[in-house]
Amino acid sequence: MVRRHRDGDERGASAVEFALVSIPLMLVLVGLMQYGWYFFVSQTASGAASTVARRLVVGDCWVGNEAQTLAQQQSVQVTSLTKSPASLSGATPGVTQVVVTVTADAEIIGLLPLPNGGVVTKVVKARLEDTTAGPACTA
Asked: Radius of gyration (Cα) for the chain, nearest Å?
């Protein structure tokens, strides 16, 4: 039996190996970007909820959509904001609890599943400190 060495048979081996390695590597990189963005949006939504709650407890941002506008200035991904109570009427400083709920959309690529479908919800609670309306709510 004669053995033959074929030197030319390994010409495409590097390309095949690169393809086998690059596909999982690209999935990991895309996953890192997608989850990094999710955590970034989560952090900025949390900061926006805290900032709005801070302004609400001192009597600011109660007129119209000022609170939501302030939240969207803090985090562009904010899609909705709810505040409870809805107004200062009947509120008592030191007793009334202000609850701010901010919802943000963190879906950017959609390749990998994200918690809650990429929707981030942050809730901040604080006691009302002042019921006298302050200046216009700006960043």
From this structure: 26
Write out the DSSP string of 57-114. HTT-S-STTHHHHHHHHH-TTEEEEEEESSSSTT--TTTPEEEEEEEEE--SS-SS--
Asked if the structure places residue 64 within a domain, the reply is yes
Please check whether residue 19 lies inside any domain of the structure. Answer: yes
Residue 22 lies in domain: 13-127
Whole-structure pTM value: 0.80
* Tens-digit pLDDT profile for residues 36-84: 999 999 999 999 999 999 999 988 888 888 999 999 999 999 999 999 9
Q: Which residue do the tokens 């952090």 mark?
A: 43
The number of folded domains in the chain is: 1
